[in-house]
Design goal:
This protein has three helices and four strands, in the order ααβββαβ. The protein is mostly helical and about 140 residues long. It is elongated, with a radius of gyration of 26 Å. It binds zinc ion.
Length: about 140
């Protein structure tokens, strides 16, 4: 794991933030202009400014959400690609019986193979499959124990 917090470049985030700030400024300007007038035609211009600002804010939020979703999809594809390199089963110890041991933390909803990247570096506890499933945990979709 590289320890990255986000795969979205800072330049991309700044673009969304700039669009959101422009929208908020237009919205504030429209509100400020319309607050000081009682003439309906003047309020219409202000209302149009505020509406344009609202649309810009909504567009910035939507684009940021889509970019974040794409970043999550790329990260998940990377994890699945890494998991495809994992051995399919831990294999029996030399001369001993084959025992499948899987790991999870008490707060996890899924159990993993010990080599799964989603369990790496976490304070996991080893147990048999039946114990994890008895605790209500499901199989990990990445390492597929
Ligand atoms: Zn896993």
């Amino acid at each position: 794991m590289s320890g990255r917090r986000s795969t979205l470049p800072i330049a991309g985030r700044s673009r969304f933030a700039a669009l959101g700030l422009v929208g908020a400024a237009l919205l504030t300007l429209g509100w400020y202009r319309s607050a000081g007038t009682v003439v309906f035609s003047d309020q219409m211009v202000s209302g149009a400014l505020a509406a344009a600002g609202s649309m810009a804010v909504c567009l910035a939020v939507a684009l940021r959400t889509l970019a974040g979703r794409r970043a999550v999809e790329r990260r998940l594809a990377d994890l699945v690609e890494r998991a495809s390199d994992l051995p399919l089963s831990p294999g029996p110890a030399a001369g001993g019986p084959a025992v499948d041991v899987f790991v999870a933390t008490p707060s996890m909803g899924r159990y993993h193979r010990p080599s799964c990247p989603l369990a790496t570096g976490k304070p996991v506890q080893a147990a048999a499959r039946a114990a994890h499933e008895g605790a209500g945990k499901k199989r990990c979709g990445v390492c597929q124990p």
